[in-house]
Design brief:
The protein has 976 residues and is of the alpha+beta class.
Length: 976
Amino acid sequence: MNRWVGIVSLRETAPPTPVHRIALAIDAARNRTSYQLAGRTVPYARMRSALRTLGQEHARHHEWGRYEYCVDLAGDFFDGGHPPTGLPSWLTNKLQNLLDGRSGTPPTGGRRAQAAPRRAVSRPVHQRPASTRRGRNTPPEAARPARLARSALPATGQLPSPEPVRPYSRAERRLDVHDVTYPALCEPPVSLVGTYGQEVREVVGKAMRGWDASPEVTAWLGLAVEHRSHLYESHHAAQVTPHVLGLLDRLGATALDVILLDAYARWATPWKAGEQSSEHARRRAAADLALGAWVTKQGLVRMGAGEAQQPARSVFEGVARQILGVLSLCGEHEIARRLVVSVWPDLDRPSAETGADPVTLAHTAFHKEGLTYDYDEEGPDHRKVFRAAVRTGTGRTAEGTGQSKKAARAAAARALLDAYPQVAAAAGAERKAAPATLPAASPLPYAQPGNRHRDAVSGLAAMFELGHRADGLLAQALTHVSWVHENQAAATAARQRDNHLLAHHGSHVVNHLAAHVRVRQALAHSLTPDEDEARILTASDDDTARLGATLQLAEGLLTSRGESGQGRTAVSDAAQAVVAAAWRVHGPRLLGRRPAVLDDWLSGLEHQHDPVTVLAAMATMYGIEHEYTYDVSGPDHLKSFTATIGLRDARGRVHRWTEPLPGTPGKPEAKKATAEAVLDILATPVNGVVDDLPAPERGLLVFLLRAQLDGLGRPTERQRARMLARGDLGTDLLTTGDTEAFLAWAERVCPLLGPDGTAVPDALRELYRKVLDDTRIGPGSLLRRMAASPGPDAASVVRRNATDAVRRALSSGPQAASVRDIVQDWWRDQAPATGVTVRDDMRQDVFRPLLVHLGALDETLTWCGEAAEAAGTRIDVELTVQDGTLHVWLGLDKVDIRAACDDFARLLSHTLPFTDCLVGDDHVLLRLHGDLETASLHPLATAGMDAYVSVPLDRRRLTREVTDGPIGAQDVQPYS
């Protein structure tokens, strides 16, 4: 006999009574207020805040898939909700870093606590405690890392502080490698490209002698030969914006730069980086001219009728770059190189025109006499002709014309050289007397470089999978010019030089890699990017210095005794030189496989959303005029800039703000710091306690809030999306359903507005309603995405059926007047099909539903009833009201409730206000929170809450108070 018989039965919990079932479900939901993230407990409110922050960061990078994921997930973290447990690794890591204050790329906005004060003594940094609101647990936004006013690296020209000598320990570098994958590109519309892609493919294939393109490349080649004028005339600008052509042009330009420099590095080694840069500019102009002539000869460009009458040369050169951009975009970098070779044979050899440009030659030939240029222009604005006249000090003159001042100046200089050949010949003889290049021998590693340098070279070789093939190039990449000056013998013995040439090459490689990532992401998302989405900026010194810091290059950088190797410029040059060394070995393979460190850095680049650009976009949207002025201090060789921004709102109010920086910041750093400070102060009502703000910051915050309210017009859908991604005016709090956080934000803002802020503009009410409509039923909403689920599989069918049910609940709703009417009508229809038990425990409790709540109840009962009928099982329903919230418990036997109801419950909770639908193992719990009393709220909070409970599509219904008091049928249980 089993000795456990009787013992186990005694320990088994008795089956719950009907009253216990709903009570247990309610208590379990109330206790779910925190989340287990990698072994740590995080409150739901803090998770919502962190997910909103990460969503804004992904929006800045235009990673819209991850942005939507973060925003949708934030809506799952309502108290009592069942958020998913298996979060993606990329999100888990970002959440951990953000919650720990280790975010690598902190978003703009949100004043962060500083480790040390960075401002003048008159405006110290204050630590802000977490806010509280009448006892509510509303934690502030997730803690963000301390941001330095400048890069963590010392400013250029700033002497490093002496540090104690510490024993050497080898730096640990990340050696993992990413195989880069991209989502599929959008397909160009057939109505636009037609069969033209095949014609372009044949022309390119003829130059390639047998190259056969894939259908995807063929379609994109048909788009590459478009000119924006033809897009408008063919009425396709709504399907393909001209910014797509700009993206292809920019990618093709960076690809051409790399192709030219790759070839140049094989046969030339100039003395200085400036010489290489000048020669590259000349070769680039020649290659552009040849490619444009080839496009003209082949008749590839599709222009509008007006542009075709007198096309400019730049039109054909731009289309040639677009073709190169498509080839690079589709992984055909080698085909792009071969196309350039076939069109411009001088790619792989010095051309007859190799040398300085005419302006430089004229300056060299006539420098003793001196040169002056005068300019004149004529013609209409869209087709100006510039005329340049050059005159020497002895009266020699010449003239030239061109489509720009630069071209006219070059033509005038060339005419002067042609007019006085004897002077030009003498200058050319002097130039030939000096060697133009060094011996083209491969550099070698240093014989005795020291442990730090040797370990850095071996670590980088392993990271980039270079083996020992590039040890010499990596050694050169880690050689500062100051070290060569002091160690000329060692450098000569290893056939080495400083890293300036490699850094110049690497700057173009970095730009090409960054453009490739950017264009792939943009064109995989949509063919209608706006100006911001299509903008590609060159990586700044701060960006590449950050890459160098991640690669830990300062550890192995060879510098002189007086140079620390920690300067921003030194580390930036070394990082670009390392990338150039890897490119010279691997070539375009880096586009598809590269170190994880480099891939993460490329993905994290912010192409346009630096603080200055964010502030400019925000100011434009709200009609705020702004202008920067600068104060300069210090000696000429060590100038320090301080930027002041002047703001003028739509009502003519003016405010000025200055953000001083320590050290010797340049003008860009000072401008960036001032813009970032303004944005950080504007974010204070969400991230901190307003009462602790010093008077100057409080005054700026008041000005900005009033300027936003007064300058708010009627933003378009795209502008509303930008406002939502930035979190303007609390919109992100409303759209994620975090009404407590919104009320806390409004409570912080209202005292700042003062008596003038009691009247809420109609534009703000309309904004709140429209951003909520966009989020609930707009093109990017969860409802639209579920409705678009393809395929005949069961999961897709369930999602599509769920969207139909939620649409009905949101738009029409039942005709019944009360909760009991809805339940009774449903019971009468359902009872003949399945066994139904209804227990009504609402008693005298007051519940004031929204009309959408009645629709939610009706659709939830119908959904679960159909599931029970399909499974041939009974359904139990229990109702109770607690603290103004209606709880409806639906028990189902023999039904896989999660498979049947998860999508419906999630969509219902996301789309309807004050509605939570929770799915358990054997039941569904619907919680309908009664209408919020807004009479005691500030008008700003009332405007947001009124919009939150409104019905989309302008079918807003006023909420009615429905009190289920005692009626004659209540005591007789009409459902028995």
